[in-house]
TrEMBL record:
The active site is at 148. PANTHER family: N-ACETYL-GAMMA-GLUTAMYL-PHOSPHATE REDUCTASE, CHLOROPLASTIC-RELATED, N-ACETYL-GAMMA-GLUTAMYL-PHOSPHATE REDUCTASE, CHLOROPLASTIC-RELATED-RELATED. Pfam families: Semialdhyde_dh, Semialdhyde_dhC_1. Catalyzes the NADPH-dependent reduction of N-acetyl-5-glutamyl phosphate to yield N-acetyl-L-glutamate 5-semialdehyde. Residues 2-140 form the Semialdehyde dehydrogenase NAD-binding domain. It catalyses: N-acetyl-L-glutamate 5-semialdehyde + phosphate + NADP(+) = N-acetyl-L-glutamyl 5-phosphate + NADPH + H(+). Belongs to the NAGSA dehydrogenase family. Type 1 subfamily. GO terms for molecular function: N-acetyl-gamma-glutamyl-phosphate reductase activity. Keywords: Amino-acid biosynthesis, Arginine biosynthesis, Cytoplasm, NADP, Oxidoreductase. It comes from Laceyella putida. This is N-acetyl-gamma-glutamyl-phosphate reductase. SUPFAM superfamilies: Glyceraldehyde-3-phosphate dehydrogenase-like, C-terminal domain, NAD(P)-binding Rossmann-fold domains. CDD domains: AGPR_1_C, AGPR_1_N.
Length: 343
């Protein structure tokens, strides 16, 4: 299947290139760059010097003629304009940005401070958290790939919410991300000396992934969910670790809680329930795994859920390929069997 990657000079884009090159059914037919059209891929990424690709202009007509599936790995606001043009030409779109994740355009405009896509296209979009929405994804031509923090958070949270074991009014999410999560753009606050030897919270007063987490969590408890979410930047390249704290509605034994997770993910090859030790970013680095660990605190009646992913893999490009596999009816692990890079 011929694919185009728009935003192919970015971190999400180059991870898509790596995965598509290793995928038996996907072909990289067009790498699009608005800033480096005409340049070789190896100029942006010398480690890919053996690949013969040249970046192409962003030409919707040509992309539509030469490819069937388009991955958009572009900053917020780009897909709002491009996706309707691609969909109008019958192309299948998997969008890595936040432009089509929120059902309510007003919510997108409030949290992203940008104009939302027309309702028609927001209604068409399917939320691409493959473990929970595979049935919808199989029929979708516009897939909104989840955000990196929501992926780690929701995979840890949904089994307990669905089982009605926790209080949805008290969800505290402490999240930490490596610096590739912020993309490859030049930004003074992301310089080595600003990030290294530092651990800093950001967007404490409101992160754009809050409404996304609340929207999906709300579907699993038929309530207006509000979460307390604070992200932190960690001096490492890749990885997200989410620690979620919530009170249990009754006293549950650890074995009961674990069985809820095992049942929820029994046919989900990318979710690993960690029973010895705790999830850590290094254990998933470079892979599409989400590692989940739980701890029941009998003393306080609270439960702690830990969830680790590689933000560029399960948090972005890996999940996008997983969605393509689900959509096309290919085995879900196709092209995604790479093991973590430890050490
Ligand atoms: N990094 C991560 O861990 C995750 C990222 N995401 C989301 O995925 C998307 C891509 O992220 P990431 O790869 O990190 O970002 P980067 O900043 O690394 O790359 C984005 C790319 O988009 C291209 N671009 C910029 N402006 C435009 C435009 N107007 N039209 C077309 N292309 C444009 C640029 O390439 P060029 O200049 O060559 O056109 C750029 O390389 C974002 O929406 C991000 O929020 C989601 C989950 C995780
Ligand atoms: C470390 C870091 O800065 N991470 C980014 C991740 C968000 C992202 O990728 O943006 P979307 O809203 O398109 O998902 C952030 O917190 O804004």
């Amino acid at each position: 299947m011929k694919t185009a990657v728009i935003g192919s000079t970015g971190y999400g884009g180059v991870e898509l290139i790596r995965l598509i090159e290793g995928h038996p059914h996907l072909e990289l037919a067009m790498l699009v760059s608005t800033s480096q059209a005409g340049e070789r891929l190896s100029r942006a990424y010398p480690h890919l010097q053996h690949l013969e690709y040249t970046f192409q202009e962003l030409d919707v007509e040509r992309i539509s003629q030469e490819t069937e599936l388009v991955f958009l790995a572009t900053p917020p606001g780009v897909s709002v304009n491009l996706t309707p043009q691609l969909r109008a030409r019958g192309k299948m779109v998997i969008d890595l940005s936040g432009d089509f994740r929120l059902e309510d355009g007003r919510s997108y405009e409030a949290w992203y401070n940008r104009k939302a896509a027309p309702d028609r296209w927001l209604e068409e979009a399917v939320y691409g958290l493959s473990e929970w929405f595979a049935e919808e994804i199989r029929k979708a031509d516009l897939i909104a790939n989840p955000g990196c923090y929501p992926t780690a958070t929701l995979l840890g949270l949904l089994p307990l919410l669905r089982a009605k074991m926790i209080d949805h009014r008290a969800l505290i999410i402490d999240a930490k991300s490596g610096v590739t999560g912020a993309g490859r753009k030049v930004d003074q606050s992301l310089l080595f000396c600003e990030v290294n030897e530092n651990l800093r919270p950001y967007k404490v007063d409101g992160h754009q992934h809050i409404p996304e987490i609340e929207q999906i969590a709300g579907r699993f408890c038929s309530a207006d969910v509000k979460v307390r979410f604070v992200p932190h930047l960690v001096p490492m390249n890749r990885g997200i670790l989410v620690t979620l704290y919530t009170p249990m509605l009754h006293k549950y034994a650890m074995t009961e809680v674990l069985s809820v997770y095992k049942e929820a993910y029994e046919s989900a090859p990318f979710v690993r329930i960690v029973e010895r030790g705790w999830p850590a970013t290094k254990a998933v680095q470079g892979s599409n795994f989400c590692d989940i660990g739980v701890h029941v605190d009998e003393r306080t009646g609270w439960i702690t859920v830990l969830s680790a992913i590689d933000n560029l893999m399960k948090g972005a490009a890996g999940q996008a390929i997983q969605n393509a596999n689900v959509r096309m009816g290919w085995p879900v692990e196709t092209g995604l069997k790479g093991l973590p890079l430890v050490p």
